[in-house]
Structure formats: structure tokens, C-alpha cells
Amino acid sequence: MDYLEKAQRRAYAAATRVRGGYQHWSAAHDRGDVPGWVMITVMTAGLVVALGLIARPLLESVFTNAVNSVTGP
Fold it and tell me: With bands split at pLDDT 50, 70 and 90, how would you rate the model's confidence at 53?
């Protein structure tokens, strides 16, 4: 058995162990916490909108100044 074949067998064995461990963890921790994920998603969307409302005028002025400095008055 050459080096490449040994490496392939080790990689396959490691992948099998990882897959088995994940399946065990998934079965033990799958509680269907949908309301928590919905709350996180809604809060993230709210933060993005709030930051967008605050930062939009500043970003527009930065962009306008940058374009004006390149193109001239």
C-alpha cells in the first residue's frame, strides 16, 4: 500500500467519523427553535434599516464629495 492510498483511507475514515459525530449532535440538539431564529432575523433586519437611515445622508455626502473631487466643479 503506497502513501497516497494510506492518505485516502485516513481521509475517508476521518470524514466518516465527522459525519457520524454530526448526525449524533444533530439528533440530540434538533429542538426546532424557530421563534428564536425568527427573532434574530427580525432584529437583524431592524438594525440594518436603522443603520441605513442614519448612515444614508453621510454616505451620500461622502460619495458626492468623492465624485466632485474627481470630476471637478
Answer: very high
